[in-house]
Design a protein that fits this description.
By secondary structure, this protein is mainly α. Helix content is 68%, strand content 4%. The chain has one domain (16-104, 166-365, 396-486): Amino acid/polyamine transporter I (Up-down Bundle), CATH 1.20.1740.
Amino acid sequence: MENVNAQPEFKRGLGLLDSTMIVIGSMIGSGIFIVSADIGRTVGAPGYLLLVWVITGIMTVIAALSYGELAGMMPHVGGQYAYLREAYNPFIAFLYGWTLFLVIQTGTIAAVAVAFAKFTGVLIPWCSEQHILFSLGAFHLTAAQILALLSVALLTYVNTRGLQEGKIVQNIFTSTKIIALLGFILLALFVGRKSSTIAANIGSFWNATWTQVAAGKIISVTQISGWMLISAMGVAMVGSLFSADAWNNITFTAGEVANPKRNIPLSLALGTGTVILMYLLANIGYMLVLPLTGSPEASDVAGKGIQFAISDRVGTAAASVIFGESAAVIMAVLIMISTFGCNNGLILAGARVYYAMAKDGLFFKNAGVLNNKSVPGAALIVQGVWTGLLCLSGTYGDLLDYVVFAVLLFYILTVIGIFILRKKQPHVERPYKAFGYPIVPAAYIFLAASISIDLLIFKPNYTWPGLGIVLLGIPVYFLWKKVGSRIKA
């Protein structure tokens, strides 16, 4: 007889293709269409802009291949949270989970949801940020925020209905955006290319400059070389690293991946490799269509260049050269598809970390319970509510600037965890071992630590608050240990 009192269990419904789609879909949002403008202002030369993306790609793939060892060793729900708990202790793991819930995952979902709403506003002006529905003092509620809230609520609901439903949405939207992005890249490479643009970019290929801007005007353009150039590249990588982030989300869903010891490491390698290649090709495409350097006062997209594309929308500027007046609509549709699919993966995966934390007594008790569809419904709802509050607050953009440092910090700790676990648990089965161990993982630690120190020096207004968010979790941890296990959401 069937046991009617049996508790729901996770279903291993994610195959290799599904897992790879989560990696790709979670990585590609709106960043690739925007952040190259700021990178261009910071390094000022086509060669160094590409080098920033190459280094970002190398670091991302190295980290993903390193995580493959941990994923094979510990195919546990919660992924990176579980790796930190096993390598260090529950305290360090909690600080990661705390920062993930407070800012990293929810802030990213909020930012991506608002990006979805902004570009919907291109097609439906009612949905724009300029359409203010309600004001009270400094607080303004816009139609874009409402649409962002509705998109988060819809995707949260879909994912509470079961893994199959979330997986279908992920596969459809990720496949569509891969095809659309590849189509855009091919058109930029072979149709939109302009000989005058190519000549201008080749002529200044390694001429590095750092352009300071305030109130939409250029304050200074400084020739840079040596240590200042290295520092500028580190600062520029904030955008590229953020655009290439969230690949680790597949590790959160390890309890639902079929043959996780094989499929998670493989999906990490295939997914990150695919995205980084497309990112590099997209940036090459941009520079075949638009000059890198430009002026904010120019009247056309070529004069503004990549550096001063309107609202940093480099993708739209490049598309306008290829498609003409219809570019804004075409890019709006592409980014809507991209951001909607991105958020589905983030929403699906993030809740699994809070489930694992709740099982350890470090999050709301009912977040550690699966609903009758075998998914952590309460964790999904708590995540959705907090994300909604961030959407309404309008602070998610600042918060995301703050957490790039925190994200790097936890990546460094996790890769160091490989070395620790090789000592602590030498006999545990490792179906896959970190590529190039110990040299390649050590190189990642060195690069990521160097960038973190660079950001502490050159972007203190962003990095120190990020560190503060992490440290704020220390008293919360001890408070939660005392009373938290009894708290329900």
